[in-house]
Write a structure and sequence with these properties.
Length: 129
């Protein structure tokens, strides 16, 4: 049974920083496409950043490139999203998702919510102006 658990999040002023974490357990033999999505009420879930646990390749949405950094602690199966220069428009519920996949499939599909089988409950990030 694969479990995905997020932690971190909270409230910060514009220009501030936050780090959120995600631990994926129950999958010692697989490599995963591990992705951060975010969603605000009335809008579709948006892919923010992803990392392939096997090769460490990283993928970013244009809206967060140069501000957000995704990383992993492979032995601990934990993924981090360091968010710098936060803007009010970054306010959203952030979800961690995982899908067993090779690097190629991860690269092509990371931003698609339906590609991912395993999801966390989400963690709220609020950025005030």
């Amino acid at each position: 049974q694969v479990q995905v658990v997020e932690s971190g999040g909270g409230s910060v002023q514009a220009g501030g920083t936050l780090r959120i974490s995600c631990t994926v357990s129950g999958h010692p033999e697989d490599t995963y496409c591990m992705t951060w999505f975010r969603q605000t009420p009335g809008k579709e879930r948006e892919g923010v950043a992803a990392i392939h646990s096997g090769v460490g390749a990283k993928f970013y949405a244009d809206s967060v490139k140069d501000r957000f950094t995704i990383s992993q602690d492979f032995p601990k199966s934990t993924m981090y999203l360091q968010m710098n220069s936060l803007k009010p428009e970054d306010t959203a519920m952030y979800y961690c998702a995982a899908q067993a996949a090779g690097y190629g499939l991860c690269g092509k599909n990371w931003s698609r919510p339906k590609f991912h089988m395993y999801w966390g409950q989400g963690t709220q990030v609020t950025v005030s102006s």
